[in-house]
Write a structure and sequence with these properties.
Strands 2-1-5-4-3-6-7 form a seven-stranded mixed beta sheet. It has one domain (about 1-180): Glutaredoxin. The chain contains seven helices and seven strands; from the N terminus they run H-E-E-H-E-H-H-E-H-E-H-E-E-H. It is about 40% helix and about 20% strand. It is globular.
């Protein structure tokens, strides 16, 4: 009888953890809410600078995308896709910023090799910013979540999927819709 009771408790805990993990895997900030401001170290083309969301938004909308880990297959594919479309983002007045929990030395290398020096890639140690954006997984990695932040600092679009294939198309469509509203 004790073994059955223990098995039920263990099963309940496992199901609860999985449910919380699943909720976090698909959590994101909703459209219209104010985007949390942040300042992080970022690299572009191997050069390190401080990126401040408020300062970047002064120039136009921002595509902020969180990714799990530099130099992993999905993250490399996603970085290549964003870099291939930087011209499209610029035509829409937007700047792209990638963010993961990797240290700045890793981001320096990732910025040149995989991001092709096309956009900023920021270091978020401890995933403090990812947590503010509801883009942190319980395993200590950022979730693959993309945001379009309007110039007024509000979330115009959010998308979460571990599949990197739609993040670029979806954020470009959201930027086009945002531009059409003006």
């Amino acid at each position: 009888m004790r073994q059955v009771a223990l098995a039920v408790v263990v099963l309940a805990v496992v199901v609860g953890v999985m449910w919380i993990g699943a909720r976090r895997a698909f959590a994101h900030l909703e459209q219209g809410v104010k985007a949390p401001e942040f300042t992080l170290q970022a690299a572009q083309g191997g050069d390190v600078a401080t990126v401040d969301l408020k300062a970047v938004l002064a120039k136009g909308p921002v595509v902020l995308y969180f990714f799990p880990k530099s130099f992993t297959s999905g993250c490399t594919v996603e970085a290549h896709m964003f870099s291939e479309h930087v011209g499209d983002y610029k035509k829409l007045g937007a700047q792209v910023i990638g963010v993961s929990g990797d240290d700045i030395e890793t981001q320096k290398k990732f910025s040149t090799e995989e991001c092709r020096s096309a956009f900023l890639v920021a270091s978020d140690p401890g995933l403090k910013v990812a947590k503010q954006y509801e883009a942190a997984l319980i395993a200590g990695f950022a979730n693959r979540t993309s945001y379009v932040i309007a110039q007024d600092g509000t979330i115009a679009y959010s998308y979460t999927s571990m599949d990197p294939s739609k993040h670029v198309d979806n954020t470009l469509d959201a930027l086009r819709a945002l531009a059409a509203k003006k």
